[in-house]
Amino acid sequence: MATLVLTAVGTAIGGPIGGAVGALIGQGVDARIFRPGAREGARLRDLEVQTSRYGAQIPRLYGTLRAAGTVIWSTDLQESSEISGGGKGQPNVTSYSYSASFAVALSSRRVAGIGRIWADGNLLRGAAGDFKAPLGAFRLHDGGEDQPVDPLIAAAVGIDQAPAYRGCAYAVFEDLQLADFGNRIPSLTFELVADPDAMAVSAILSDLTDCAIPFLGDGDEPSLDGFAGEGDDLRGASEALIAAHGLRWCEQAGRLALTAGTLTETVLDPARALRARDGEPEAAPTKGRAPIETVPVRLSIRHHDPARDYQIGIQTAERPQPGTDVVEIDYPAVLSAEAARQLADQSLRRALRQRMSVRWSAGWSALALGIGDIVSIAGEPGAWIVEARDWEDMAVRLTLRAHGLAGRPAGVTGDPGQPVVETDLPQGPTYLAIVEWPPDGTMLSTAPDVRVAATGDDAGWRRAALFRFREGAEAAEPVGRTAPRATIGRAETILADGAPWRLDRRNSVEVRLDNVADALTSVTDEQLFDGANLAMLGDEFFQFGLAEPVGPRRYRLSRLVRGWHGTEWACANHVLGERFVLVDAARLARVETGAGDIGTMLDIRAIGTGDAMPAEAARLVDGRAMVPPAPVHGRMSLLPNGDLALRWIRRSRLGWSWPDGGEVPLGEEGEHYLLSVMAGDVVLRAWEATTTTSLYAAADHAADLAAAGMAALTLQIRQSGTFGPSRPLILTVA
After folding, report:
1. Coil, strand or helix at 712
2. Binning pLDDT at 50, 70 and 90, where does residue 15 land?
3. Distance (Å, rounded) from C-alpha 669 to C-alpha 661?
4. Which of 416, 524, 526, 596 could bond to 337 as cystine, CB 3.0-4.6 Å?
5. Which of the listed residues 193, 213, 237 is the one where a domain comes to its end?
6. % of the chain beyond a pLDDT of 70
């Protein structure tokens, strides 16, 4: 600083007195360099919006602060495609997604760590370090002078061309998926921990100037939980910091120092002021008062509010008119709303008090006073601080400014307003359930219809990557991503057998949901008959009308409609702990399968950002969507000659709704039925039919009874389909 240079020069030329004279001249220069002026330096908005501008300043960060960065390197967007759909006569749909790798400069000073990250204002990384969107890797380079080159940047541009950015803290995102951000690199803000503890103002300024700046005086030195130093020079970086706390630059032993005022016992007496100089009269002490209009009627401080996730807050102090001036101070520091409100109030009352000044001429003894010394004036109330000290024609001219605050209103508090914060929910582990869809009644399937439902522990869970694991393969095959969070759980009781296609008022089942944020709700009978609350339990599709909470995550389901979509065969097959899935096609991810997968075990793995280990689920694929539903309404009547007349109604993969009660489309290459007489698991007789009627001759019946040892016989009727037979309609032979 100018003071330091000129003090040294003055001492070399004129000894101690020359040093004092040089200090006075230097202080005058410093007063011009550091004098208060219009708002300059870093605006808080510069810390809110990520840039990639060449030549943009990278601030020095202190404490803990939320700041945007500057993109210093990036790859082109990487495109990947995923084919979905197809089957059931629908076209394939190719979906494209994009990812990017990039580096963001954060601080031109070493940082200790990083906390949360926001992307376009939404939480991208939680406090626990969990990412809410998929990415390949994340690395923080702390800005040390020995930090190595990032391996990704080195691989992209070459080890000889890759800078290490030593002395600059920066973050590297590798393969960040951009689907959630409009397929572009989002605007990122970071919660940076540069220092674990609060920092004193003098320590911050010492770091900014790269020289030790002591704090002088009798008041408490301000400290900050976070601060961003940025500006064209020291003045630009420190102006708001010094002005907000009423501090001043001064000198100590020829070096720059900071003070809030040093109390002295000096009392200036107007009767002893310098009256003459070299025989010439000297002006008497002059007291001045600036017009009240020079003091703003409203003074606001914009700051980083920790109660608002370090977003910008503003606190205002006002005074009665006259005047129209309004001042807004951009203070890139972390302050609570109450601290900022008190700071605004103190700044305004300080400005009111400092309207008063005194010009004083004194002899050489006044050289003992320095900038920032606090004196009193005989006959004047209050304290006065030495603002300037000039040497002119063998006289010391002092400029004194009224010191202290004008009035002290009690109970000054600040209100941060409604915090605009996003709940930081942990991702938690992923849970999976595999659903093999039966015929849906609208389209003909030529491949198994397999879908995956996924969720996590709570609402913080996001989608996960899906992989198909094949036994004997060296790696799992990527098969896309999960759909949005599904409602899944497990049975806590066993659902008893019940009659299909009608309201079951007798039976109930209790299920426990995997995700604490999910809930099941009851519906009216009218909504039930319109298809509401369709669910899968084990292999059975059913609906529930009542959902009664009976414990944390646990519900009792009753008023059931059983055996939907051709799953009446599964009504009697329930076990404890089987999977429950609330059926919503938009929340189920289709896994592409072919006819060759029938009879194989489908092993699915999922990895989300909250998974330490992959989630797993497996299911034997039976291709149920490809075969017709079992015939229904079977009847057996005894004819006069002893034959048994058989009759049934077929169903179709294309005819669930049955709107007119007439014939439904066949949906197969031909109409054929396979009839079998069974004694337990033994087939005693089999024949085919081409219509929905047939005869079981009395002689054949007698022969089968004899072969079975008069054991009970059952008759199974299956419809032959293009890809295989249906499940059987079972009749008991009387």
Report:
1. coil
2. very low
3. 23
4. 416
5. 193
6. 88
Q: Are 616 and 648 contained in the same domain?
A: no
Question: What is residue 493's three-state secondary structure?
Answer: coil
SS3 label, residue 282:
coil
Quick one: 107 and 148 in the same domain? yes
pLDDT of residue 35: 37
Which residues make beta-bridge pairs with 376?
A: 267
By CB atoms closer than 10 A (0-12, 13-18, 19+), residue 252 is middle
Top pLDDT among 275 and 381 is at 381
Q: Is residue 162 part of a domain?
A: yes
Maximum CA pair distance of the chain?
Answer: 155
What pLDDT, in 10s, does the model give residues 682-733? Answer: 999 999 999 999 999 999 999 999 998 878 899 999 999 999 999 999 999 8
Nearest CA to 361 among 383, 393, 402, 385? 393
Query: Which pairs with CB-CB distance under 8 Å and at least 24 residues apart come from 492-496?
Result: 492/554, 492/576, 493/576, 494/574, 494/575, 494/576, 495/537, 495/540, 495/574, 496/574
DSSP class of residue 576 equals T
**DSSP letters along 86-154, please?**
-STTPPEEEEEEEEEEEEEEEESS--SEEEEEEETTEEEE-TTS-BSS--SEEEEE---TTPPPPHHHH
Same domain flag for 598 and 708 = no
Based on the fold, state whether residues 637 and 618 are members of the same structural domain. Answer: no
**Residue 273 DSSP symbol:** S
Do residue 450 and residue 529 come from a single domain? yes
**Same domain membership, residue 463 and residue 339:** no
Q: For the chain, what is the total number of helices (H) and then of strands (E)? A: 7, 47
Same-domain check for residues 447 and 536? yes
Residue showing tokens 């200790």: 112
CA distance 696 to 665: 27
Distance CA 413, CA 341 (A): 6
- Specify the 3-state DSSP secondary structure of 727: coil
Structural domain that includes position 672: 632-733
> Is residue 17 a part of any domain in this protein?
no
**Whether 657 and 539 share a structural domain:** no
* Residues in Cβ contact with 23 at an 8 Å cutoff, skipping those fewer than 6 apart: 3, 6, 7, 10, 251, 254
Tokens of 274: 């310098």
Q: How many domains does the chain have?
A: 4
- 489 and 556 in contact (C-beta within 8 Å)? no
Other CB atoms within 10 Å distance of the CB of residue 263? 14
* Residues written for the chain: 734
HSE-up of 17 (CA within 13 Å, CB side)? 6
- Answer yes or no: is 667 within a domain: yes
Angle between helices 2-34 and 234-244 (to 10 degrees): 60
Beta pairing partners, 163: none
Q: The domain spanning residue 725 has which CATH number? A: 2.60.40.10
In a domain, 643, yes or no: yes
**Could you give the CA distance from residue 22 to residue 11 in angstroms, rounded to a whole number?**
7
**478 has pLDDT over 60:** yes
Helix axes 337-353, 234-244, angle to 10 degrees: 90
Domain boundary, last residue among 564, 594, 624: 624
Considering the chain, what is the average pLDDT of its residues?
85
The span from the CA of 537 to the CA of 542, in Å, is 8
pTM over 0.85: no
| Structure tokens belonging to residue 346 | 């103190």
Flag the least confident range among 10-19, 443-452, 511-520.
10-19
